Amino acid sequence: MVSAGPRVLLQTVLSVIIVLVHVWTHERFMNMATPVLLGFAYIAVCLAGLQLLGQDVPNMLRSWSLAVVGIRSWKFVWTSCLGTICGSLVAVCLDWILFGSSKDSSTFEDNSDSDDSVDSTTEY
Fold first, then answer.
1. Rounded Cα gap, residues 57 and 50, in angstroms
2. Do 59 and 45 meet the contact criterion of CB atoms below 8 Å apart?
3. Cα gap 95→23, rounded to integer Å
4. Residue 12: helix, strand or coil by DSSP?
5. How distant, in Å, are the alpha carbons of 13, 67, 80 from that of 96?
6. pTM for this model (two decimals)
7. Fewer CB within 10 A of the terminal residue: the chain, N end or C end?
8. CB 18 within 8 A of CB 45
9. Could you tell me which residues come within 8 angstroms of residue 54 by beta carbon, excluding any fewer than 6 positions away?
10. pLDDT reported for residue 91
11. Cα–Cα dist 103/83, whole Å
């Protein structure tokens, strides 16, 4: 079994991969194969992390639910939760750094001068 620090780091890296595959295939590249690519990414992450993490896959709910039922101990549940949350935050920050905000900045500008063609004396 791996100690807590490397477990959190590995969970973070695996979560970054899953989140970036989802965000980049769907939002950035407008690819219709998002479910297939996300499924393959999840399988690859599970196979890569299964050997190092023991029986934890990067799924915080699965780790937590097995501990609630009593099948697994609570000893490393927090590493799965912390690694998944940190990985999601890192992926969002990385996406924002590489691609910027997805909103067009012109939508937030004041458009008060865009209605110049309407005459104020015209009755409706």
1. 6
2. no
3. 8
4. helix
5. 17, 35, 24
6. 0.71
7. C
8. yes
9. 1, 2, 76
10. 93
11. 29
Residue by residue, pLDDT tens for the chain (124 residues) are 678 888 889 889 989 998 898 888 877 777 778 888 888 988 888 888 887 777 667 778 888 888 899 888 888 788 888 988 999 999 999 999 988 765 544 444 444 555 555 555 666 5
Q: Which two tokens stand for residue 51?
A: 């050997």
For residue 108 the two structure tokens come to 């937030």
What is the DSSP annotation of 31-98? -TTHHHHHHHHHHHHHHHHHHHHTT--S-HHHHHHHHHHTSS-STTHHHHHHHHHHHHHHHHHHHHHH
**Token digits of residue 95:** 């996406």
